[in-house]
Please model this.
Amino acid sequence: MSELAFFLGCIIPNRMPEIEKAARLSAERLGITLSDMGGASCCPAPGVMKSFDQTLWLKLAARNLSIAEAMGCDIVTLCNGCYGTLKDASMELREDPALCASVCEALRPKGYDLAVVPDVYHFVEYLYHTYGVDALRERVTTPLSYKVAVHYGCHLLKPTKYRQGASSERPTFFDELVEVTGATSIPYAEKASCCGAGGGVRSGLKDISLAMAQKKVDSIKGADCIVTPCPFCHMQLEQVADIPVLHYVQLLALSLGVQPGEMGLEVLP
Model:
């Protein structure tokens, strides 16, 4: 059984607890232990904090990493933005010992340290590269028949130097994970486009942000639902979509035999 430090971030516990429930139920059926990170804070958000103060962004991210290090675990998260921050911070600290030493010096007076910098996974990345597609397929008990419009999101794929085997132009791993559940990933014109929420666009230019999301959704034809690995993308897309939007762990949970009501989910038409 694998144990991972479970980084929830901000949006899921505050606005989408049903995603957390689906993840925990799925992990239980897969033999994965998700251990809570007591005292964890905002990641902090890569598109906002990092743009204004990269040093503070790194120190706050390192504090979260140090909590997982004290647990003796690597981190797994369900959010592209949290993944983007924590993965990139982890890699930067590993690549630059002097930078890591400087950050640790700032953290020690508060009781935090990083003797070993933990690795960071997005849950879908962990399932694909570490757990394995074949092993996951063996656990599916209730194959689904939905036609799915897959949305990857930006931070899951970029920067490519810190992403495990991911092509940012024509990725397939998330489509494969969706199809493990029995669902079919359908093509659509704006599949590779941003949802419009990140980088402060949603906060500063909401009309443009929603127009980007609308363009993406309008290009989807014949899908029963949209599936995303990110609660922020999820929140953005469901504002304009005329079909249900699901986080991947909700789709996965259904295929593992979890009943919709167990995770606060309505049955799809």
Q: What stands out?
A: Strands lie at 2-7, 32-36, 75-77, 120-122, 147-150, 184-185, 225-228, 245-247.
